[in-house]
Structure formats: structure tokens, C-alpha cells
Specification:
The complex is a heterodimer of chains A (317) and B (261). With 317 residues, chain A is α/β, with parallel strands linked by helices. Chain A is built from 8 helices and 18 strands. The termini of chain B are far apart. Classes of the chains: A alpha/beta (317), B alpha/beta (261). Chains A and B meet through α3, α4, β7, β10 and β13 of A and α3, α4, β9, β10 and β11 of B. The structure holds flavin-adenine dinucleotide and adenosine monophosphate.
């Protein structure tokens, strides 16, 4: 049986749902091994949190270099794992870190890379949505070990419990991967809401909130949604940068995206256009965001959202 | 200090794009300088300006490096009119449809032999949207990688560069010795508009055009192949209601029908 390796994805020391999504895609025609990169002594804890999805094996590599030398050290380790174990493919989460690691591994192993796949078939044909979601592309890596980065929340994850066999691998990170040094790291502040890229529902606010996100947040909470923001809102300091949706923020593709007081600039669309269902609240009937809307309300978000929040809450109780 | 800035010419973000024979059809659309690369040019200029400027014959220079068709000279002229000193364009029919691996290979070869201390890139080209070329360049060159910078500072005396890396994974402080590859996010600065004087001066600046043989790399067979591409059905026109006191309830009704509640 063929072997596909995935790079396990973590938020802090918690394995993300994206890991199960990668495993689900990989398991279509292969036995799945998750690579866990950990600080010295932390491997067992991280490995133990890899417990959802069709994962047969976990390969733990511990090194202090992952924290100190970031992407380069991670890529160096993954490339060494590939050289030793010769998997048939490598799947990685498509975010800044994942894509950079994948890119360096592609160079190091002289392998083709496909980024931002929304699906990966059993024969490793990747599906991508390009040009703002207007075009579907199917492609395949033709050289080396196929390396594919997969967009979070695109593949329905098999979240069944698994008890993978854990193997520890000791490696020496090469000096060429230690040229840049991380001297401090501040993780993003985590609120109680779901993670933006993993959420089924995202409610976003823009300049139209005029700095007051309470109506957006209450509506999001009624739906158990994550909260996003346009760049106008993050630039103004109304919402943290880590919540920005768009070309230079996060790409989200939830089941439902609700844009409130957002005009729909092309850079914002780039991050939300592939959402399955889109609802819009905007007081300007000409706002370009209405072009994307499955359901649009022309109106003031401060009137529409509280009423909607009440409606949702009433239905749930 | 010698800085190379990698810029790409891309189709205008608003242009309707389509695939022809598995690659982006670049002929039929307006092409512009990748807007995220303007921040890279601006940052390079600010770095040299903070350390004595980049006058002709001085110790500092900013060189634009690009790979693309001949007409990418238009985008390069824009970078030159902002104040960069000169440019290298690698153009070769064999490079049409190159992927990130081929692009990084060509760029690395050009940069390796240019005596640069720093390479500055944008974080993403708006057409390919891969965000991998800077990391690949660092890997190929064997240089330090300091990417997704929301601030950069250099110390030419100590030959060091420090950045603040800002991504969804948080904020990191990273430093390294020259030579290094840096990529910048759009929050880092506000790119200048080329002045009239800058535009006139750019017309006289040198764009060194090279083919693959001059660069010294051979065209590679592609590392990945497009099997097919098809336009997706456009979004079905949605429903639009005007709030006359019931807009919130209308929304709830829609969400209920769609089983979100
Ligand atoms: C290099 C670059 C990268 C960028 N990256 C991103 C990115 O990643 N993400 C991003 O979002 N943007 C990005 N932008 C910015 C983008 O171009 C827009 O400026 C931004 O998206 C606008 O945000 P907005 O829609 O909230 O504000 P505006 O365009 O000002 O729109 C506000 C909307 O709110 C409506 N409104 C006002 N009051 C109310 C009310 N009470 N009720 C209902 N509606 C109301 C208005 O009718 C208007 O349509 C980028 C720009 C550049 C140059
Ligand atoms: N053809 C190219 N020529 C010069 N620089 C490029 C080219 N392609 C990508 N780059 C650089 O790499 C960055 C990231 O591009 P990408 O990985 O394609 O998203 C861009 O912002 C540019 O700085």
C-alpha cells in the first residue's frame, strides 16, 4: 500500500481539525503517517493529541531548532524524513507557515508542489479554485514526491478516533537551516470563538461597523460563528489583524459567510469568495459585495443584526 | 549595501482571467506591477535612504530583478521610477508557464552572482498566489530566510537584518546575518508614487535583459502539470431585500431554510 505523509498541524499544543482533513484526503488511497515536529520533551504530548482522523502512524521529531529557526528548520527535518522514508506524497496545511515549509521541502527534494488545493483525489490529482474562485483547475505533480498544500476547511474531515503507532526519529538539523534566529514569539490571542479558518460560519464586519463590533459579535455568537474583519476594520485598530479576511489576511471558505458593512473590494473577495453560502448586510444597494450574495439585506447593520440575533436565539430555545 | 528586489508583472487584479492550454492567458489582459511588490521596492529604498542613499557610484544600490515576458519592462520601469537604480529581466520563450520551482531557480541563479547582501520580495504574487518563491529562494541560495516582515531594520556595520514576522501564527522577532532573503507584508509601509522626475530618470536607467543561456540555467520540464481547467458556474443571482423593519427576520428565515439554524 502506498504511504502518504502529512505534516500534523497544531495551534499551540492542540492538534487542529486541519490535520484530520489532511489525513482524510491522504487516506483515500494510502496509509497515513503524521509527522509531528516538537520541542524537546514535548513530542509525547503533541503526538497524543493526534487522535482524530485516519492516521496509522505518528512520527515524532524533537528539536529545539523548530522554535529557534522556524520554517527553515521544519523544512530541513521534513526533507530528511522524506529522504529516509520515501513516502509517495506529502500533504501540508495551506497557511503561511505550511506553504513556506512545503516550498522549501519541494526545493530540497526536487519535487513538484501544488498549493491551496481544495481537494486531493486518490490518484493525487489536486483541485484548485483560481482567479477568485472563477476557475477550477485539476493538476498533478509530475516530478519527485508530490507535495500538496491543502486549504483548511475544504475537505470534510473523517474525525473518527484513531490510535496511531508512535515512532520517535532523531535527526540533526543542518547548519544551513539555522541562519535566521527567532528571538521572541507571541502567539495570537485566542478568544472563546472558533478559529477563523476552521469555522463553519464566519460573520465579518467592516468600516460600516464604525468601530463597534458588538452587533457583529452577538450575531456570530448566536450562530456559534467565528468573527472576521475587513482590512479597513483591522487597519483602524477596531479588530485584531489576525482576524483580517482577504488577500493579505486569511482565506476562509466556510459553509456560510456573512459580510456586514463591507463593500466587497477585490482584496476582500480574494479571501472569502469560495464560501459556500454568502449573506450580506450593507446600507448601500450598489455595494459590489451584493454581486456575491445568495441573500442580501439592504439596510443598517445596527438594526438588522440585533433583530437577526434575536430571531436566531428565539429559534434555538 | 546591495539590495535586490524581486518584482513580478501580473495581470491587473480586476481583469477577467482565463486559462489557455493549462496556463494563465497573459496576452489578453492589462499587466501591472504586482502591488505587493511595490511594498518591497519601497522598503528597499527606505533602507538605503536610512543609510546614506543610493546615489550613482555610492556604496548602496537597489536592483530590480524580474522574470517574465519582454513586456514586463513596463512593470520594471515603474519600480525604477520609484527610485531603484537598475534592473535585470530574465526573459526566454522557454520560461513561459514556469512554476514557482523554475522561477526560484532562475531568480536564485541571477541573485547568486550579483553580489547582493539582501533580497527583498513581496509576500505573494496576485496571480499565482502561492507565497512560496521567497522561501524557495532562501533554500536555493542557502541564505537566511526572514519572511512576512511587518518591519525590517538593518545594521550595515554589523551585517545584520532583523524583522518582525507577522502571520496568522502570531508575531515573531527574527534576526540574521547577511546575505538574507526578506519578504514584506503590505502593512510595512506606504509605497511612494513615482515623481515626474523619477519617471523621467527611469527612462534612462538600464534594464539588463538576459535569456536562459546568459543566466546559465537550462529550461526545466515542469514539476507539475495541469490536467484540465474549466470555468465554474457563476454564482446564481441571489435574493436582495430592503430592510423596512423586517430585514433581520428575513435573514433568519433564509438561514433557517438553508438549515444554518
Ligand atoms: C495591497 C492591499 C492589500 C489589501 N488586502 C486586504 C485584505 O486582505 N482584506 C481586506 O478586507 N481588504 C484588503 N485591502 C483593502 C481593500 O482594498 C478595501 O479598502 C477594504 O476591504 C475596504 O474595507 P470595507 O469594505 O470594510 O470598507 P469600505 O470599502 O469603506 O466599505 C464600507 C461599507 O460599509 C457600508 N456601511 C456603512 N455603514 C453601514 C451601516 N451602518 N450598516 C450597513 N452597512 C454600512 C458602506 O455602504 C460600505 O459599502 C487591501 C488593499 C491593498 C492595497
Ligand atoms: N517571475 C518573478 N519575477 C520576480 N519575482 C518574482 C516572480 N515570481 C514571484 N516573485 C517574487 O516572489 C514573491 C512571491 O510570489 P509567489 O510565490 O508567486 O506568490 C513576489 O511578491 C515577488 O517578490
Amino acid at each position: 500500500m502506498s504511504q502518504i505523509f502529512i505534516l500534523a498541524d497544531f495551534a499551540g499544543d492542540k492538534c487542529t481539525k486541519t490535520t484530520a482533513e489532511l489525513a482524510t484526503a491522504a487516506a483515500r488511497n494510502a496509509s497515513v503517517t503524521a509527522i509531528v515536529l516538537a520541542a524537546p520533551g514535548a513530542g509525547a504530548t503533541l503526538a497524543a493529541s493526534v487522535k482524530h482522523g485516519p492516521i496509522a502512524n505518528v512520527l515524532v521529531v524533537e528539536s529545539a531548532d523548530f522554535a529557534t529557526h522556524g520554517v527553515a528548520a521544519a523544512a530541513d527535518a521534513v526533507a530528511q524524513v522524506i529522504a529516509q522514508k520515501s513516502p509517495n506524497a506529502l500533504l501540508v496545511a495551506s497557511h503561511a507557515y505550511g506553504k513556506e515549509v512545503a516550498g522549501r521541502v519541494a526545493v530540497a527534494t526536487d519535487s513538484g508542489i501544488i498549493t491551496d488545493a481544495v481537494d486531493v483525489a486518490a490518484d493525487l490529482t489536486a483541485t484548485q479554485l483560481v482567479f477568485g474562485g472563477s476557475t477550477t483547475v485539476h493538476s498533478k505533480v509530475s516530478n519527485g514526491v508530490p507535495i500538496i498544500t491543502v486549504r483548511p476547511n475544504s475537505i470534510e474531515a473523517d474525525l473518527s478516533d484513531s490510535t496511531p503507532a508512535v515512532e520517535n526519529l532523531s535527526l540533526t538539523i543542518s547548519d544551513a537551516a539555522k541562519l535566521a534566529t527567532t528571538t521572541s514569539s507571541t502567539p495570537p490571542v485566542k478568544g472563546g470563538r472558533p478559529e477563523l479558518t476552521e469555522a463553519q460560519v464566519v460573520v465579518s464586519g467592516g468600516r460600516g461597523t464604525n468601530g463597534d463590533f458588538s452587533a457583529v459579535e452577538s450575531f456570530a455568537d448566536s450562530l456559534g460563528a467565528a468573527v472576521g474583519a475587513s482590512r479597513a476594520a483591522t487597519d483602524a485598530g477596531w479588530y485584531p489583524h489576525s482576524h483580517q479576511v482577504g488577500q493579505t489576511g486569511k482565506t476562509v471558505s466556510p459553509q456560510l459567510y456573512v459580510a456586514c458593512g463591507i463593500s466587497g473590494a477585490i482584496q476582500h473577495r480574494a479571501g472569502m469568495q469560495t464560501s459556500k453560502t454568502i449573506a450580506v448586510i450593507n446600507k448601500d444597494p450598489e455595494a459590489p459585495i451584493f454581486d456575491l450574495a445568495d441573500f442580501g439585506v439592504v439596510g443598517d447593520l445596527f438594526a438588522v443584526l440585533p433583530q437577526a440575533t434575536q430571531g436566531v436565539t428565539a429559534q434555538k430555545s | 549595501m546591495k539590495i535586490a528586489v524581486c518584482v513580478k508583472q501580473v495581470p491587473d487584479s480586476w481583469a477577467e482571467k482565463k486559462m489557455v492550454n493549462g496556463v494563465l492567458d497573459r496576452e489578453g489582459v492589462d499587466a501591472v506591477l504586482n502591488d505587493l511588490d511595490e511594498y518591497a521596492v519601497e522598503e528597499a529604498l527606505r533602507i538605503v535612504e536610512a543609510h546614506g542613499g543610493n546615489e550613482e557610484g555610492g556604496a548602496n544600490s537597489v536592483t530590480i530583478v524580474s522574470m517574465g515576458p519582454e513586456r514586463a519592462t513596463e512593470a520594471i520601469r515603474k519600480a525604477l521610477s520609484m527610485g531603484a537604480n537598475d534592473a535585470i529581466l530574465v526573459s526566454d520563450v522557454a520560461l513561459a508557464g514556469s512554476d514557482a520551482l523554475a522561477t526560484s531557480k532562475v531568480l536564485a541563479e541571477v541573485i547568486k552572482n550579483g553580489g547582493f547582501d539582501l533580497v527583498i520580495c513581496g509576500t505573494e504574487s496576485t496571480d499565482a498566489r502561492m507565497s512560496v518563491v521567497p522561501a524557495m529562494l532562501a533554500q536555493r541560495l542557502g541564505w537566511a530566510q526572514l519572511t512576512f516582515a511587518s518591519s525590517v531594520s538593518v545594521d550595515p556595520a554589523a551585517n545584520t537584518v532583523s524583522i518582525t514576522r507577522t502571520t496568522e501564527a502570531g508575531v515573531d522577532a527574527i534576526n540574521a546575518k547577511f546575505p538574507a532573503v526578506v519578504s514584506v507584508v503590505e502593512k510595512i509601509n506606504e509605497p511612494r508614487y513615482p515623481s515626474f522626475k523619477g519617471i523621467m530618470a527611469a527612462k534612462k536607467k538600464t534594464i539588463d535583459s538576459r535569456d536562459l543561456a546568459t543566466v546559465g540555467v537550462s529550461a526545466e520540464s515542469a514539476w507539475s502539470l495541469v490536467a484540465d481547467s474549466s470555468p465554474r458556474p457563476p454564482r446564481a443571482a441571489g435574493v436582495k431585500v430592503t430592510d423596512e423593519g423586517n430585514g433581520g427576520n428575513d435573514l433568519v428565515k433564509f438561514l433557517t431554510e438553508k438549515k444554518f439554524i
